[in-house]
Amino acid sequence: MKSLVQDVQETRLAIEMIELGARMQMLESETGLSRERLLKLYKEIRGESPPKGMLPFSTDWFIPWQQNVHASLFMSLRSFVIRNTEHNPLEATLQAFRMYREQVELMQLDEVLSLTRAWTLVRFFDAKMLQQTRCTCCGGEFVAHAYDPTHGYVCGLCHVPARAGKGKRPMREEVVIEVA
Amino acid sequence: MKMDIGNEVRELNLSYLMLAQQMLVADRAGGMFKLGVGEDVAEVIENLSPAQILRMASSDMLLCRFRFDDTLLLNLLGNHGRENSAARIHATILAASKPVEHLV
Questions:
Q1: A69, A104, A128, B24: which has the highest count of C-beta atoms within 10 A?
Q2: Distances (CA, A) of A7 to A14, A32, A37
Q3: Which residues pair with B37 in a beta bridge?
């Protein structure tokens, strides 16, 4: 039997996540609230039904230049929060996402990562499919495939590729894979 | 008119402490990142009373210190070139990995 206090805390957390743009998969996995409850909350806050379909599942998405820069920025901010505060892993993700969003707005860039995308990124780290690799040139940490050779690694910001960020515009929302 | 440096320092101290406190109250972790301070320092600044802030500020020692003594980071922050936003993201990534100020 769930306590009332816990229920209120989880509801508050769900509201915060929905406001930051979380999708159902993230809400279901991070709170103990029922699907019906989450759906109602989602509709009430966003004024529409949550997008259907599966979450993108490839680590490759985080590797092209622009995505990698944004993912690395987010992970650096999250590492700062983990290192210097008592936040639990989920709180750290939410806090780092707010900091990421603030930075991106300040620089007037597109918000390449969504909260759900950032959360997926953290899950890839937990599963040891991605890692932070230290650039041998600037010393900053950048998102890379786990077990990639790190020797002599140089980040995309120290050596900006000629066509960096000039490829096809990345979509602002993650690609929804429709279930037939 | 000669600038009264002592007075300027006290003014800056006062603005700095008040701003730091505001930043930490508004968003603790975000403020810590921008200020470059650890949880212990944040705790102290956040809990300063107005009287304490005034007393602290009225020293002729500057209370904030130069943070970025890293050549690369300095160059990035001063960059006004074409790739300005990339340089700023780069600076933020590097700043996030720097150690913060702690009480000893």
A1: A69
A2: 10, 8, 11
A3: B101
Q: How many C-beta atoms surround the C-beta of residue B11 within 10 A?
A: 12
With CA atoms as reference, the chain B residue closest to A135 would be B94
Give phi and psi for A10, each to the nearest 5.
Answer: -70, -35
Q: Round to whole Å and give the CA distance between B58 and B60.
A: 7
**How far apart, in whole angstroms, are the C-alpha atoms of residue A16 and residue A132?**
27
pTM exceeds 0.90 for this model: no
Å between A81 CA and nearest CA of chain B: 7
Distance CA B35, CA A107 (A): 19
DSSP E strands in A89-151: the ranges are 130-134, 141-145
The residue type found at A4 is L
Do the Cβ atoms of B96 and A80 come within 8 Å? yes
Bridge partners (DSSP) of residue A174 are none
Dihedral pair phi/psi, residue A75, rounded to 5°: -65, -35
The answer to whether the Cβ–Cβ distance between A80 and B89 falls below 8 Å is no
Query: Which helix (H) or strand (E) is A79 found in, with range?
Result: helix A65-84
Closest-CA residue of chain A to B73: A138
Spatial distance between the Cα atoms of A85 and A17, rounded to a whole number of angstroms: 20
B-chain residues within 8 Å CB-CB of A72? 93
Length of chain A in residues, anyone? Answer: 180
pLDDT in tens, chain A (180 residues): 678 999 999 999 999 999 999 999 999 999 999 999 999 999 999 999 999 888 888 999 999 999 999 999 999 999 999 999 999 999 999 999 999 999 999 989 999 999 999 999 999 999 999 999 999 999 999 999 999 888 899 999 999 888 776 655 544 444 444 443
Give the three-class secondary structure for A143: strand
